[in-house]
Amino acid sequence: FIDGIFASLSEWTKSNLPQGAFTNLIAEGVIPGLGGIVIFIPQIAFLFLFISVLEESGYMSRVVFLMDRIMRRFGLSGKSVVPLISGTACAIPAIMATRNIESWKERLITILVTPFTTCSARLPVYLIIIALVIPEGRFIGLSYQALTLMLLYLIGFGAAIVSAYILNKILKIKSKTFFVIEMPNYKLPLLKNVVYTVIEKTKSFVFGAGKIILAISIILWFLASYGPGEDFNNAEAIVTEQVKNESITDKELQQKIASYKLEHSFIGITGRAIEPTIRPLGYDWKIGIALVSSFAAREVFVGTLATIYSVGSDEEETIKNRMAGEVNPILGGPLFNFASGISLLLFYAFAMQCMSTLAIVKKETNSWKWPMLQLVIMSGFAYLVALIAYQILS
Length: 394
Description:
This protein is mostly helical. The protein is 70% helix and 1% strand.
């Protein structure tokens, strides 16, 4: 719903403002950037609403107490349960929920491992890749595709727990704490307290991480909208000349022009530049562009491939058919086969492909050190796992 509002606002801006770079900046950079902030508000508000209700009612204290002994074996607190579970919806409000953890070391470890849990933004990538590469069939009554999706969720939780254990051994932060928690009587939550908590924590996100998200969105828009050289500047003339003997509609022509410009934009050149690096994973430069652009948000992966493949609709089936027809330029055969598909699934399972999460980690830790370490280590580990998977399966 929120996506639709901002998409309509972008279209209205393009239609009613004079054509030019400023209008494109507003319609394709600023408005989507604001949308990238606002779209998280309902998730954040609902999460803190439920957390506040559980805390006010006295139930949360009992859950935390029961889980504390188990979680401490991995360097976490019983209070880490809430962020890890809520991370399956979105890592941003989950990381904000770590504020209830008193020990800085336990809170930092929880912040660093929460992005491993499978958030809702990974689902569009998982669903389309699973539909492409996992065969139909059943095992003990469950389809292979459903089992694959469930396994990805379990891998995410497993990675978070193992990472927490390793970080607990590595981080030399003196933080000796005793688990003391009040066990209040069960009671009805006070509406005033609940509303105040929701408003304050939501406002903190909008005015804190929101500024960083907006800035990075504008930078990514610039990289995708501009490019060097004649190929980008004369894209319309070049594509028109290439298809002059073909009978295509004006809409299809515009799609081909958009695809050509994206290929020769700064972000497209980046995709070409990183192709030698990602080729051992079974990816081509088009997937490379999708990987780079999906740093804004993981779900952008599908939309980027739809654009570069000149698909006019973002319906999953249309994109799936187009992706299924892609040929590996080096080996021949389908580009999206079992080996490259599993490699891609594992890459997205472990990689830090979310600038919004990095922004909120920076805000919560008050330093760029931890989000940068998180980005490098998670992405490096994702690359290594994807490389091993592809080389074994291919």
